[in-house]
Amino acid sequence: MIRRTLLYGFFIGFALSSCQTNKWDIDIADIKIDQEFKRFDQELFEIPHDSVWNYVPKFEKTYNGFFDLYNRAVIQIGGTNELDYAEKLVYFLTDPYISEAYTQINKTDYNEELATINKAFKRYHYYFADKPIPNIYTHISGFNQSLIIDSGLVSISLDKYLGADSKFYAMLRTPMYLRKNMHAQKMPSDVLYSWGLTEFPYSENTDNLSSQMIYYGKMHVFLEAMLPDTPDTLKWGYTKQKLEWCEKNERQMWLYLVENKSLFNSSFKEIKRFIDDGPFTTPFSKLSPPRTGHWIGYKIVNSYLKHHPNISLAELMAIDDYQNILNESKYKP
Known about the structure:
mainly alpha; 5-stranded mixed β-sheet; globular
């Protein structure tokens, strides 16, 4: 597998619950996968500060390239070949804010979230049997990245999931629209969504707003398939009220995009208004959620699936002709 590294900051999540059956839900009772879970954060923070060099070979052997990636790109203290490496690592481990965050993390039980992630990757193996299953690690980033995705692994920064009311996020002046999704229950949807982004990258053959809407709509269908039992508020990262706003205003949003000729606009600034995170979607009401372009894209893809009921999830994720999906969706809210 080609080595690739992605460091993710804040993540997003997913449509209103309904009585309809999730067509992608499957029985995973007999599905077996080889997936390793490691609490790298605990192993690192428990090493004696006066003998760091004695533990470096163990970490390099156990965690291979991840350990170097963590040192250089995440906590940014350089590689183990540097003479002052041990001093810098101890400085990080004993930082009062990081130590306090670790104490809080160490009192938290993440078994439910990790079990949900494992079940999701069993579904992933069912639908994409030829693709690798990543190992899952946990780390502390010093409030930097939420996730690290490298070849064959996903590592979760637990200090980015301390809860919306964490004093650390207030001290860092993290915007409230981001804080509300910085809690442990959000980890499974963040992990699967981000893994999907790396496995099914966006094709820039025709880069405009509608293409990005449909791409992210596909990613939300993927998330729905991987986490059928997870509440939509967690998958979207929206409150129930924001999801209801989308349902109520679906037609109005679509008409705005059509009437303002926004769908095929390739302007970076125009696309960001509907795709990027924020407190709300700026062209719409302040009552709207952010990323409504994703939500409408999801509706378009679902309309496409209704007209192509025999298409598999793997086939859907392989389609990069976003214009064709739009045309054949016959989407009319």
